[in-house]
User: Which sequence fits this backbone?
């Protein structure tokens, strides 16, 4: 199993809210890499591992 | 009846009611529009029933030809909007929902869902904007993990962690492993 990265459950909840907030919207059209990087960056998830 | 594009109108028959809209060979714009309509239908069905619709069910629900529903599934899969089972080509994942039972169970508003992973088990209440009870197992020893989301707050998380084995850019190499 690769080493990977670990987030606390609280961090994962914050990530889930940011990532999935609009997922059920009929107008959701996916996410470009730049937007994904912005979301992750706001949560402190930068670096090579979290790069889209 | 109405006509469209110079073609004769159609009667309201199963599989043909929407021929004016999606009949014949679809252009790119029509394919795109149908694809997103299919996506919305899949997610609405998932939220209501806890499982994704089959392509046949989507065909009936949207009154389109079965081949159109399957083709839309494939286009959505290619765009990573859905993930299809490699053999059945039915919806295996519509993130954060799983189309098959998993160790990550989420109950919300009287319904029960499966999540694809530990991230998605929290993704479901995030997507639903609803309170939820989450049941999972710790990978180390199989002991139960019980969490809840109440008024937007996570409860019961203790000292648990979520492990992401692969970097984000590799997640689509093998989504089941990821």
Assistant:
């Amino acid at each position: 199993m690769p080493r990977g990265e670990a987030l606390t459950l609280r961090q994962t909840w914050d990530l889930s809210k940011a990532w999935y907030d609009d997922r059920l919207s009929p107008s959701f059209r996916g996410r470009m890499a730049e937007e994904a990087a912005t979301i992750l960056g706001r949560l402190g998830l930068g670096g090579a591992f979290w790069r889209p | 009846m109405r006509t469209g594009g110079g073609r004769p109108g159609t009667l309201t028959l199963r599989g043909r009611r929407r021929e004016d809209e999606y009949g014949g060979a679809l252009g790119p714009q029509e394919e795109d529009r149908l694809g997103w309509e299919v996506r919305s239908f899949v997610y609405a069905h998932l939220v209501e029933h806890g499982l994704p619709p089959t392509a046949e069910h989507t065909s009936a629900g949207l009154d389109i030809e079965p081949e159109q529903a399957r083709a839309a599934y494939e286009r959505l899969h290619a765009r990573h909007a859905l993930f299809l089972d490699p053999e059945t080509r039915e919806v295996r994942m519509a993130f954060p929902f799983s189309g098959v039972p998993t160790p990550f169970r989420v109950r919300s508003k009287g319904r029960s869902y499966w999540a694809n992973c530990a991230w998605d088990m929290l993704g479901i209440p995030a997507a639903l904007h609803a309170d939820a009870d989450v049941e999972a197992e710790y990978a180390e020893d199989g002991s139960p993990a019980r969490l809840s989301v109440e008024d937007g707050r996570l409860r019961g998380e203790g000292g648990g962690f979520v492990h992401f084995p692969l970097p984000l850019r590799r997640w689509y190499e093998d989504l089941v492993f990821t």
Notes: The mean pLDDT of chain A is 88.
